[in-house]
Write a structure and sequence with these properties.
22% of the residues lie in helices and 37% in strands. It is α+β, with helices and mostly antiparallel strands and 407 residues long.
Length: 407
């Protein structure tokens, strides 16, 4: 791991002067005895500051008023290797929706090996309100359930929640996109753009170079160590900007860690393998990721391959069709005071019942399900209790008469 000292980073507004690069390079050549060929083809991007570079990146995406993308996610680890098609992401600049296929494990077989289940996560971001629905892939789309199935469904990974406006951090419309910019979601504070990120944390230009395709690549180092948080947070990342392809993020190297006694450090690497130009806009069409603790060969590998993409065009939108299933238990999470409200969702995509305490919800759930599911059993129980009470009364009367007779 490399140094995080203050001397390693320069002020974000400092620029790389082409003149200094030329003079320094000529000096090195002359000291080496000459004869070397120096290529100074990287001119425009090398004279930009960190802020100017990332601003061009943000402006590129801000110019796209609407985008819809269908892609396949490929997953490979030591446990399982699988392709997950039919993933989707759409944004109109204010709202976004992502339907992401993923793998999860909730149980193990008789040999102790995890049983991997394909899950579908439907995420909708609407003006700062974040909705999330998770169900097994083979059950999606799910329109309605029976409330009394809540406990068994929860054990199978079914889950629904939403965070009200202002209650979550970093709810950018791109945060759940498959694009390489989704790393912004991992920042603890409300960072929505790459420009905000470099303005919030120390950053500097590390190098400028050309890749194998001749594209101009600028490497930016960002020190984003977030204190006071126990979960995985990035403490350092290197972002590579492709100045020849719309100032897209070409690669990312992100170092994350947990705090505490059992601190863990992981490295996330993401690389764009292919761009496609659509109406003058360069869009990443294939990128690969690996998450590891120092050895990529034993890490978790994933890749994203876009099958169809439309931008600034008329297309059938799915933003309006997000719904929580009727009778689904939905948690409203309020991080500011670490509380939650439990809703039972109604048929009009609004809460039908709401509870600010878990005990109130459990009492309602018990009355609706347990009492209704066993009416005969409860009738017999009530009859038995009545007989016992009647018997006690008769015994009391008999004892009273016996006592009065003795007197």
């Amino acid at each position: 791991m490399f140094s995080c000292g203050a001397n390693y980073y320069m002020d974000m507004s400092s620029k790389i002067s082409l003149k200094k690069l030329v003079l320094t390079s000529l000096l090195i050549v002359s000291l080496a005895g000459g004869g070397a060929v120096v290529n100074f083809g990287f001119v425009f991007a090398s004279e930009l500051s960190v802020n100017e570079l990332v601003r061009k990146h943000d402006e590129h995406w801000e110019s796209i008023n609407s985008i819809q993308m269908f892609y396949t996610k490929h997953w490979k680890s030591s446990v399982v290797s699988r392709s997950l098609p039919n993933c989707y992401w759409e944004s109109d600049g204010k709202r976004s929706r992502a339907i992401v296929m993923s793998l999860d494990s909730f149980s193990a077989n008789k040999n102790g090996n995890p049983i991997v289940t394909e899950m579908c996560e439907d995420v909708f971001c609407d003006n700062g309100v974040l909705y999330r629905l998770t169900v097994p892939r083979d059950k999606y789309p799910l329109k309605e359930i029976q409330l009394c199935d809540y406990v068994s469904l929860k054990e199978e990974g079914y889950h629904a929640s939403f965070v009200p406006e202002g209650g979550t951090k970093g709810t950018d419309v791109r945060m759940y996109s498959p694009l390489p910019t989704y790393f912004l979601v991992h920042t603890e504070e409300a960072v929505k753009t790459l420009l905000e990120l470099v303005n919030k944390y120390p950053s500097r230009i590390v190098s400028t170079q050309k890749n194998d395709l001749g594209d101009d690549i600028v490497e930016i180092a960002i020190e984003c160590n977030v204190d006071g948080h126990e979960h995985f947070v990035p403490w350092k990342m290197n972002v590579f900007i492709n100045a020849s392809k719309g100032y897209n993020i070409d690669s990312i190297r992100e170092w994350t860690k947990t705090k505490g006694v059992f601190a863990i450090e992981l490295i996330a690497e993401r690389d764009v393998k292919k761009y496609v130009e659509i109406d003058g806009n360069w869009i990443p069409y294939h990128w690969e990721s690996v998450l590891h603790n120092g050895d990529p060969s034993v890490g978790i590998h994933s890749s994203f391959v876009v099958e169809h993409c439309r931008i600034n065009d008329t297309f059938e939108s799915y933003l309006e069709s997000f719904r929580f299933p009727t009778n689904f238990v939905v948690y409203e999470l309020i991080p500011r005071n670490r509380s939650r409200i439990i809703h039972i969702w109604g048929p009009n995509n609004q809460p039908a019942h709401s509870f600010d305490e878990t005990l109130k919800f459990m009492e309602f759930f018990s009355n609706e399900c347990i009492m209704r599911e066993r009416p005969q059993e409860h009738k017999h129980l009530a009859f038995r209790i009545t007989l016992v009470i009647f018997g006690l009364i008769m015994i009391a009367i008999a004892l009273y008469r016996l006592y009065a007779k003795d007197k």
